[in-house]
Amino acid sequence: MVISSHFSPAAILILILFTTHPNCLSARKILSSDTDTEFIKTSCDATTYPDLCFATFSSYATQIQANPKILAAKSLSVALNTTLSASQSLTDLCKTQGLKPKEEAALHDCVEEMSDSVDEFRRSISEMEESEGKSFAIRMSDVETWVSAALTDEDTCMDGFSENEMDGDVKATVKTTIEKVTQLTSVSLAFVNQYAGSK
Ligand SMILES: *[C@@H]1O[C@H](CO)[C@@H](O)[C@H](O)[C@H]1NC(C)=O
């Protein structure tokens, strides 16, 4: 290399790093919150949906740090918000012209099931903040029960569309919407379990 006579070896190394790595800047950004991001990564790897999990929670790394309680609480809040927005989408879908009566009935049931899930997440979030009364073990067992119940509600919603005559656009839309809710609920249940097991 001709330039080598004008630069120190360290400078050359830096030059090579920066010219061969177009994403150097983003790599540096990740490195700066290394341990926080590492905690999210490890926690997400223990869930059924590690990629969705990491994509969802890595942006909260600075807030969560390595605190399993904050991670569990954040995951409940994410699941709640996703359920609320799913419920809104299903309500909008209900207004589509030309729905079959069975589709309309199944959508109506789904909206009710999402409303039950919303209650279960809200109860779970406030229970996590509570410190009086119940023991930690009983409290966490209650939260686990409610988050599991939300998963069941989501399954029940999808079951309403299982008949062959329901195959179509409405079912496909519901499936996409509910799948996201189900996956984030499953991640949240894993984080609640991780926190429950951390003490
Ligand atoms: C959920 O929605 C509420 C109200 O809009 C908001 O304050 C909160 O930050 C949201 N939580 C997450 C994790 O996005």
Automatic annotation (TrEMBL):
Q: Which family does it belong to?
A: Belongs to the PMEI family.
Query: Where mainly found?
Result: secreted
Q: Which residues form the signal peptide?
A: 1-27
Q: Which organism is it from?
A: Hibiscus syriacus
Q: What are its GO cellular component terms?
A: apoplast
Superkingdom? Eukaryota
The reply on keyword Disulfide bond is: yes
**Protein name from the UniProt record:** Pectinesterase inhibitor domain-containing protein
What one GO molecular function would you report for this record? enzyme inhibitor activity
Which Pfam family is one of those matched by this entry?
A: PMEI
Q: Where in the cell is it found?
A: Secreted, Extracellular space, Apoplast
Boundaries of every Pectinesterase inhibitor domain copy: 35-191
Q: Which UniProt keywords apply?
A: Apoplast, Disulfide bond, Secreted, Signal
